[in-house]
Design brief:
460 residues; alpha/beta; Rossmann fold; Ribosomal Protein S5, domain 2; 3 domains; nine-stranded mixed β-sheet; four-stranded mixed β-sheet; 12 helices; 21 strands; globular; disordered N terminus
């Protein structure tokens, strides 16, 4: 007997890794791409139609000679927060897509509200879309932050179709999605926060930003490893990736760019969390050195570069004897492998018996330092604690240490020395290679060293 209608077509499904986005036609216990166990979920393979915002879907694009492309002198939008604008590269570029990640409660939503208030106070029309809070909750937090403006629109919505329609009707100058993991596309059967939903939502928001020229912020959750949750392709699609770092129990927050198509990736912004919100820290060196103990063994000041900005930090080292067979190495804010390398150099070239001592290193203020220019500061802090001799007041130590014990030249030494002089220090220990090329030495005693042995004789 013939049926009146044909057989129903079975909807194709695919198993997607919820950690990295890897897809396979059958279920696997372990993801072959990222190595995660039990991370595959079955999802319908139904790609969402992409909105074209006034352009036909089949409009062909023709390549053009690059020298015929005309550039308009578009000014960047400034948020009024100098630290935020510096990390962005000078402000918001029209049509840019920015992803901001950070631990829960670190202050991502607070930063967004304050930035939008700064834009709204300049006459810009801004739209804040929250998928986690109601409009009343946003109003309560905005009152506490004193970030209320008539041109700031707020809405609680998770439907991506409704948000895109809202953007077309309201035509805001800046859009914030908080957070991208809560967005839901009705054309997909998977739950909000899944890899498919996050990927498709980001793709549609990227197309919207490029077609309309609206700068768009995407707030993203992070995993327990500190990476932004969701597929890695999301970070490839956006123009800028920012990380909001810091300890929830610390008052300082650091905004760092790890990807920026319109600016440097080395800039950082320093903020202080207060009851009224995030306050900019114009002079981070003074803040990080405010509670530095005087004449204390193991405390050394060095200078690190964050983009174009030199920052003085305090390195704290502690070498304590142990009865255990394997001494401990606890490192906070520094590369653990780098510290282990420098300890080996100190044992070999200086004759310090550190194998029987626990070694603890810390960067005061919760800052993370990765550049090798602070090697001499690490060596000096450990030696000072091991010998129980404090460093003379007013001394700053700079230099990269090699495996043979030589002290190598570092970059931007003139900027570092200018910051050292501005903060009131009187003596600076620099590599001998930098001393020959330095131009600023006024009112500051600058001493060059060639090896770590010379530095120890000079300092202790």
């Amino acid at each position: 007997m013939n049926s009146l209608s044909g057989p129903l077509k079975k909807r194709k499904t695919v198993f997607t890794c919820q950690s990295c986005g890897y897809q396979t036609p059958k279920w696997l216990g372990k993801c072959p791409d990222c190595g995660q166990w039990q991370s595959f979920a079955e999802e319908a393979q139904a790609p969402a139609p992409l909105k074209t915002f006034g352009l036909p879907a089949d409009t062909p694009q023709k390549p053009v000679p690059i020298d015929t492309v005309e550039l308009s002198a578009e000014e960047r939008l400034t948020t009024g927060m100098a630290e935020f604008d510096r990390v962005l590269g000078g402000g918001l570029v029209p049509g840019t897509l920015i992803l901001i990640g950070g631990d829960p409660g670190i202050g991502k939503s607070t930063l967004m509200l304050q930035a939008l208030h700064g834009l709204a106070s300049q006459g810009a029309k801004v739209l804040y879309v929250s998928g986690e809070e109601s409009v009343k909750q946003i109003k309560i937090r905005s009152q506490r932050l004193a970030a209320i403006s008539a041109s700031m629109l707020v809405v609680s919505e998770i439907s991506l179709e409704a948000i895109l329609a809202m953007v077309e009707s309201e035509k805001p100058d800046v859009l914030v999605i908080d957070s991208i993991q809560t967005m839901y596309n009705g054309d997909l059967s998977s739950a909000p926060g899944s890899v498919t939903q996050v990927r498709e939502s980001t793709m549609q928001l990227m197309i919207m930003a490029k077609k309309t020229g609206i700068p768009t912020f995407l707030v993203g959750h992070v995993t327990k490893d500190g990476a932004i949750a969701g597929p890695r392709i999301m970070e490839h699609m956006v123009d800028t990736v920012l990380y909001f770092e810091g300890d929830r129990n610390h008052v300082f927050r650091i905004l760092r760019a790890v990807k920026n198509r319109f600016g440097s990736t080395n800039e950082i912004g320093v903020f202080e969390m207060k009851a009224a919100g995030l306050m900019e820290v114009a002079n981070p060196s003074a803040v990080f050195l405010a509670e530095r103990p005087e004449n204390s063994p193991g405390s050394v000041v060095t200078a690190t570069m964050e983009g174009t900005r030199p920052i003085l930090i305090e390195l704290q080292g502690l070498a304590a004897g142990t009865s255990l067979g394997t001494p401990r190495r606890t490192i906070l804010g520094l590369d653990q492998n780098r510290v282990a390398l420098l300890v080996a150099v100190m044992e070999k070239k200086l004759g310090l018996q550190l194998m029987g001592h626990d070694i603890f290193m810390n960067v005061a203020g919760g800052v993370k330092v990765v550049e090798p220019a602070v090697d001499m500061g690490i060596v000096t802090a450990i030696a000072s604690s091991f010998l129980d001799r404090p460093l003379s007041g007013g001394t700053v130590v700079l230099g990269e240490v090699g495996l043979t014990g030589e002290v190598r030249a570092i970059s931007h030494v003139d900027l570092r020395v200018m910051e050292i002089k501005k903060m009131g220090f009187t003596r600076c220990i620099v590599p001998l290679g930098n001393l020959k090329r330095m131009t600023t030495r006024d009112e500051l005693e600058v001493v060059g060293i060639g090896t770590v042995a010379e530095a120890m004789e000079l300092l202790f």
